[in-house]
Design a protein that fits this description.
The chain is α+β, with helices and mostly antiparallel strands and 258 residues long. The protein contains six helices and twelve strands. Helix 4 crosses helix 6.
């Protein structure tokens, strides 16, 4: 009753929709009450040691406060807790105060559970986009350059997703040819091979691949690659003129070096 309203529903969100958060042991829930609603995301701090929320997103999430979305965050000894209120008249001060109360309640319940742990020894480091594109270019036989982009989000994600992306060492790279034409996109996430169905051998030793369909962000063919622990997703722009099979073969070969 922190909000002094009768909550009608608290629903866990599908793990497949929150794979980045689940990758670091987190969960997400939505709640609703009359015309009020919001979300709560909780992640253990096990994999957040030394991980910082993206500085360029601080103002958007934790200084602004809009009626349709006012985000908050707080940390306890063991948890990173954040959420968003969609409540008319919500202020920054009220959101932060209510969020702190919610975090205290979550922490008190979490004490009943065993500490979450995960092995990360085989996780990829975050690759440099320029270096990754250079490895693909060498195998493809075309000069390419890679530029780091913010991420694969059309709408701003919940703040917990961004901290999870940092913890999972996500890189999101736009790949261009020497004329400045975009050839494709490459995204890497450490530890996220568990999100894939069983993949097939890619032709590169130690790397499996799975056709992920069409139309990710460029309207092109998409392929996922994994070494059994980590995940790389690549898309070829249909306007680039680059042979899809050759591009994906070059990406598979580059994956083996990550």
């Amino acid at each position: 009753m922190i909000l002094e309203v009768e909550v009608e529903a608290i629903e866990p969100e599908d793990e497949r929709s929150w794979e980045q958060l689940a990758n670091i042991g987190g969960i997400s829930c939505r709640w609703s009450a009359d015309d009020l609603s919001g979300g709560i995301q909780v992640a253990p701090r096990t994999l957040l040691e030394g991980v910082e929320f993206p500085a360029e997103s601080e103002e958007y999430y934790f200084e602004r406060c809009e009626e349709w979305a006012c985000s908050w965050r707080t940390a306890t000894d063991d948890l990173w807790v954040s959420g968003t209120f969609s409540i008319a008249g919500m202020t920054r001060e009220a959101a932060d105060a209510l969020g702190a109360e919610i975090a205290d309640l979550v922490a008190s319940k979490a004490q009943e559970r065993a500490a979450w742990e995960r092995e990360t020894e085989d996780w990829w480091p975050r690759p440099d986009c320029s270096g990754l594109a250079a490895r693909v270019a060498e195998r493809l036989g075309l000069p390419l350059d890679g530029v780091s982009n913010d991420g694969p989000y059309i709408d701003p994600p919940m703040p917990a997703v961004l901290i999870a992306d940092e913890a999972s060492r996500m890189a999101f790279c736009a790949v261009f040819d020497e004329a400045g034409q975009q050839v494709g996109l490459i995204q890497t996430n450490a530890g996220m091979a568990w999100t894939l169905p069983e993949a097939e051998p890619s032709g590169t030793t130690g790397v499996s691949a799975l056709a992920a369909g069409e139309f990710w962000l460029l309207g092109g063919i998409v392929q996922d690659f994994t070494d059994g622990t980590n995940l790389l997703r690549a898309e070829v722009s249909p306007q680039s003129g680059v042979d899809e099979d050759a591009f994906f073969a070059a990406v598979a070969s580059a994956v083996a070096d990550l």
